[in-house]
Specification:
This protein has two helices and seven strands. By secondary structure, it is an alpha+beta fold. The strands form two sheets. The protein has a five-stranded antiparallel sheet. The longest helix is centred in the last third of the chain and has 25 residues.
Amino acid sequence: MEGKRVKDSSVTMAQMMIPQDANPSGNVHGGVVVKIIDEAAGVVAARHARSNVVTASIDRMDFHNPVFVGDVLFFKTSLNLVGRTSMEIGVRVEAENLTTVDVRHAASAYLTYVALDRNGKPREVPPLILETEDDHRRNREAVSRRQIRLAEKKREAGR
């Protein structure tokens, strides 16, 4: 199976936050942000695998700054690690106030997806070609997160 570069599946999605996304104070609900993060990461996983994919886990979800009604969120999403059937995708969310042009790092997340065949069973995905130093750094960090995830899973299975 021929490998694919990180940039071949990376996406940036934009979404304006509107009143229905927020509480009465105008702060956007975290769940709204998480939903779009999942959608953006799913697009990256499907582009890489060229098959149906499912979310296996959200390894890390950090909110750094609040998001308000009227902000435009940019979901910068790319592959960090590819296994045999699974993929780790990193998402950086930036919030831009269109009036002041203030840009804030709003959130970050790491999600794992599994590619599925037509019968809903895990299927192999193309290997990941790392080109830039940033690609290599993110891959090294993802390998460490994967080792932690697997160790936690093993501990939980032993309970």
